[in-house]
Design goal:
Elements lengths: L2 H14 L32 H19 L5 H6 E7 L8 H14 L4 E10 L2 E9 L7 E9 L6 E10 L28 H17 L9 E7 L11 H11 L4 E10 L2 E9 L7 E9 L5 E10 L12
Parallel strand pairs: 1-5, 6-10
Antiparallel strand pairs: 2-3, 3-4, 4-5, 7-8, 8-9, 9-10
Length: 315
């Protein structure tokens, strides 16, 4: 692996370790940009909790039926034929998706998709999982994001990010478990969502819009970390970010979409060190404690490739 690639990844993981998204509405602020696809609409945020729970079940069902069982009929039942695809290895539409599934299931007939946490807000669903392509391997950390058509109830659009799971981590935590209490992978009650979003927004704006390392005051001292390259705790992050912003003053972080439920907030963003850098597609998932401090963090990072099978970008 080239040293330039390693440097970019190290930089991106440092930023991702402390980044969180904005609230529903996606109002652009400074370096944040409004999404071209999959953004919030007035109708989306009135989606009932019952429908959101149904969308979560459908998203998990589709992933497992397609990739664990090769059941292509799941695509016909639950995905619109004009499905918009952002995975750079697949083209738009359900027929292209079926071809992609055929290739993957033939290559990995024993694949398992282990779902770790699922969040839904409005017409968006995010699934965080550990995909094991072959038994006995560590597999990949994967985030799948879906936009549902509120009229038909079918999946209309998809984004994903994947990252190899390393053999060890510097913090002693794997990339998927929950360490903070209560130790559950389920999001907290939905009445917590506005509070979590408010904390997340202030943290994001202070850290990345204002470039103010004092944003670490929004982190709990223990701040449990699941990024494999970063230790637990918030101590020392202020100094690291001060140095980071001085070293990379042209950093661009564009918020694309946010999905929050209960005490968890996820952000999909594009990180670039310079305007010319293709950068990385990053999803961060944060857990906000009831005292208003961010207590835990998971992320998945993927380099943006030079070419894609579709014209939609990863964002």
């Amino acid at each position: 692996m080239r040293s330039t690639h390693l440097s970019r990844k190290a930089v991106a993981t440092l930023v991702a370790a402390a980044t969180v998204g904005a609230v529903a509405g996606f109002t652009p602020a400074a370096t944040a940009s409004a999404p071209s696809h999959g953004g919030a609409t007035a109708d989306a945020w009135h989606t009932s909790p019952v429908t959101q729970e149904r969308n979560k079940r459908v998203a998990v069902h589709v992933l497992k039926r397609l990739f664990e069982h090769g059941d292509l009929s799941a695509a016909d039942r639950h995905i619109r034929p004009d499905y918009i695809q952002h995975n750079p290895n697949a083209a738009d539409g359900t027929e292209a998706l079926k071809d992609f599934v055929r290739f993957e299931t033939a290559r990995y007939p024993d694949l398992t998709y282990n779902v770790k946490r699922v969040l839904a807000q409005g017409n968006m669903v995010i699934v965080h999982g550990n995909v094991i392509n072959e038994p006995g391997t560590r597999g990949v950390a994967l985030v799948d994001m879906f936009r549902f058509d509120p009229k038909s109830g079918m999946i209309a659009e998809h984004w994903d990010i994947l990252q190899d799971v390393p053999a060890s981590t510097v913090n002693g935590n794997d990339m998927f478990g929950t360490v903070s209490h209560p130790r559950t992978s389920q999001p907290g009650p939905r009445w917590l969502t506005p509070f979590s979003q408010k904390v997340a927004t202030k943290y994001f704006d202070t850290l990345l819009v204002d470039k103010n390392p004092d944003a670490v005051r929004y982190l709990a001292p223990e701040y449990y970390q699941h990024n494999p390259t970063i230790p637990n705790g918030s101590a020392g992050l202020r100094e690291q970010f001060t140095s980071f912003f001085q070293q990379f003053p042209n950093l661009i972080v564009e918020r694309k979409r946010v999905i929050a439920e209960g005490d968890m907030v996820a952000i999909h963003a594009h990180y670039r060190l310079t305007p010319e850098d293709r950068g990385q597609s990053v999803v961060d998932i944060f857990r906000v404690g009831r005292n208003g401090k961010i207590v835990e963090h998971w992320d998945v990072l993927q380099d943006v490739p030079a070419t894609s099978a579709n014209d939609n970008t990863m964002f």
